[in-house]
Amino acid sequence: MNFKEELEQRTREAEEIIKSYLPKEEGFAKNMAEAMNYSMLSGGKRLRPVFMREVYSMFGGTGKVIEPFMAAMEMIHTHSLIHDDLPALDNDEYRRGRKTTHAVYGEPAAILAGDALLNYAYETAFRAFDLLDESDMEEWKRVAKALSILGKKTGIDGMLGGQSVDVENDKKEQELDREMLDYIYENKTSALIECAMTIGATLAGAREEEIQKIETLAGKIGIAFQIQDDILDVTGTMEELGKAVGSDEKNHKTTYVTLEGIKKAGEDVKELTKEALNLLMELPGEQEFLRELLLSLCTRRK
């Protein structure tokens, strides 16, 4: 298997699915749709939709019911980036190598575009019901459970809860302690990766104990991903990352690197990835690509 080519193919497939669910730029709300689509089409790894579909396939899923959830997942992630970049929060002007939404459309439009994407994500996920056979009650239950996961992992007990604690503690002179930083990472970053992977397993009909194992390994990968992000904010370049570097220091933000140092941070990324891979080996299905994808996260430079 050529991992790079396989990743490019899966990313392209996810991109096409996402595009097919974007709002039309027409009518009185045309400008809002344009701002939403500007952010959605600005590139990115499409990591969460790729994770979702790969786990779905690993557990034997073959239908199109996964597709609206893939698009919804990326809409929610993009909503969080639009709001993170706002002047009231990180005040970043570049994301994925080009101007952020508020820098192009203005702050009020960016706030509304982020809000609209979050709501549109749930509208999109509900469209999964349109793809079901009316007589297949088991599949209807799976979609309902997947919607429940989507709601919980992105709300106050997940991504938004983590973001709120992050914002509350921004620019404080006193450093966060490790317990609170772990809470932020587990919710602001890990929750969406857990969401993507557990939805994939759920829609494919995985057993409950398998779904729990997927959730645990996804949590480890999510934290490793965020720690690597912290490392790159210190060691990366604008050309590599497509966004400003040193923003954590600029905003006086406590990160894993500021608490533990770069050396320990790098070691923990490797250890968390190893633990996740060990859990993956306990699960059924074809895992080669997913294994390589998880490994690539701990060495990425962007």
Layout: helices, strands, pairs:
Elements: H1 3-20, H2 30-40, H3 47-58, H4 66-84, E1 94-95, E2 98-99, H5 101-105, H6 107-126, H7 137-154, H8 159-168, H9 178-203, H10 208-235, H11 238-241, H12 247-250, H13 256-260, H14 262-280, H15 288-297
Antiparallel strand pairs: 1-2
Helix pairs in contact: 1-4, 2-6, 3-4, 3-9, 4-6, 4-9, 7-9, 8-9, 9-10, 10-14, 14-15
Provide the CATH architecture. Answer: Orthogonal Bundle
Tell me the count of domains. Answer: 1
Mind telling me the CATH class? Mainly Alpha
Give the termini distance in whole angstroms: 23 Å
Q: In angstroms, what is the radius of gyration?
A: 19 Å
Summarize the helix and strand pattern as letters: HHHHEEHHHHHHHHHHH
**How would you write the strand order of the largest sheet?**
1-2
> Would you identify the regions where 5 or more consecutive residues have pLDDT less than 50?
none
Structural class given helices, strands, pairing? Answer: mainly alpha
Write down the CATH topology.
Farnesyl Diphosphate Synthase
Helix content: 55-70%
Q: What's the overall geometry?
A: globular
What is the average per-residue confidence, as pLDDT, rounded to a whole number?
A: 90
Strand content of the residues, in percent? under 5%
CATH superfamily: Farnesyl Diphosphate Synthase
- For the secondary structure, the number of strands is 2
Count of DSSP-assigned helices: 15
Could you give a short account of the major beta sheet? 2 strands, antiparallel
Describe, in plain words, how this protein is organized in 3D.
The protein has helices at 3-20, 30-40, 47-58, 66-84, 101-105, 107-126, 137-154, 159-168, 178-203, 208-235, 238-241, 247-250, 256-260, 262-280, 288-297, and strands at 94-95, 98-99. By secondary structure, the chain is mostly helical. The protein has a single domain (3-297), classed as Farnesyl Diphosphate Synthase, CATH 1.10.600. Strands 1-2 form a two-stranded antiparallel sheet. Strand 1 (94-95) and strand 2 form a beta hairpin. The longest helix is centred in the C-terminal third of the chain and has 28 residues, at 208-235. The chain is globular and about 60 Å long. The two termini are 23 Å apart.
